[in-house]
Amino acid sequence: MENLDLLVLRDLCEWRRAGQHAILVTVVRSWGSSPRPVGSILAIAENGRMTGSVSGGCIEDDLVLRYQELWRAPSSADRARRPAPVFVTYGVTADEAHRFGLPCGGTLELLVEHDPEPGEIGALLDDLAGGQLVRRSVRLADGHAVHQHARQPEEPLADDAWFSNTFGPSYRMLLIGAGQLTEYLATMALFSGFEVTVCEPREEVRVAWRVAGAAVVPDMPDDAVTAFAPDKRSVVIALTHDPKLDDLALLEALKSPAFYVGAIGSRRNNDARRQRLQEHFDVTADELARLRGPVGVFIGSKTPPEIAVSILAEVVAAKNGVAVPHDMLVAPAKNLRSAQAGSDTAPVH
């Protein structure tokens, strides 16, 4: 599934190139509970078409009505001029929050850009298609926008003169092994907005792959990780249960900036893996501390799709900067259950 920002910007560019009026709306700040994170974007065309989201839906409807009235202004001069960007706030009062379906205490500040230049949006799309991380800045006085390559993602920033937002390559996930669990995890990750690559050097396993949208590479895992070039928006998870394959991937991934590196397996196998990596492959203590395993949040999962849900839950929490409580991770939760039951027989993940 394609990155949502790309879909929004591509639709916006097509509408503008076709001569339609359109607005680009960005979540600048939020207070309290927020339906969408800061930096989320929405595009609305003069015919009412929308792509993207800044809330649960009611704010979008109000924005359509508000700006269609502007575009329907009787004066051709009014229709031709491009207003400067404006800040719009929703949810200041409890009544307004209720009207627009915002959570209790939720307030959103949005920046509305009128008729972004199609040439600038097209050039931005070209850079994004090339895998570039881009910082786009809008001059608040007149809506003039420029963009340049960025080294790392940054939060949206607004001052008296400019508003800046980072657009970049999608969050990416490299999965080692193309088994049944990987099929479920890849499918869920694709629907969650990740670009998914699967490394599977075993031809007899690779030929059975059935998930459209996930690239499959036949390289050995260490080569696959090197070619994948993990960055701060990357995930690498080893899923083969074969140390000869999983260890190769982890050795390279733990040296990278990937925000999530993990491996599946039992607690016993996970302990053995850590000892093996430290004693035989000179993985440092700092690198080893980044290794997550057994991966996942403890939800009592037993089947491949349930285990995939468990793993993706931990990945999404890490992506969003949410610390999963220690006792909810697989190993601590199982240890607690074992201590309570006096045994370690429950075959759950």
What CATH architecture of the largest domain would you give? 3-Layer(aba) Sandwich
Content-based structural category: alpha/beta
In DSSP terms (H or I, runs of 4 or more residues), the helix count works out at 13
Largest sheet: 6 strands, parallel
C-alpha Rg (nearest Å): 24 Å
Total number of β-strand segments? 15
CATH superfamily of the largest domain: NAD(P)-binding Rossmann-like Domain
Poorly predicted spans:
344-348
From the N-terminal CA to the C-terminal CA, the straight-line distance is 28 Å
Rounded mean pLDDT is: 87
Strand content: 15-25%
At the first level of CATH, the class of the largest domain is: Alpha Beta
Shape: elongated
| Biggest sheet strand line-up | 12-11-10-13-14-15
What do we call the CATH topology of the largest domain? Answer: Rossmann fold
Number of domains: 2
Structural commentary:
36% of the residues are buried. Helix 1 packs antiparallel against helix 5, helix 6 (180-191) packs across helix 12 and helix 8 (221-228) packs parallel to helix 9. Strand 6 and strand 7 form a beta hairpin. A six-stranded parallel beta sheet has the order 12-11-10-13-14-15, with helices on both faces. It has a five-stranded antiparallel beta sheet with strand order 3-2-1-5-4. Strands 7-6-9-8 form a four-stranded antiparallel beta sheet, with helices on one face. It is 38% helix and 21% strand. It has two domains: 4-167, no CATH class; 172-341, Rossmann fold (3-Layer(aba) Sandwich). With 349 residues, the protein is α/β, with parallel strands linked by helices.
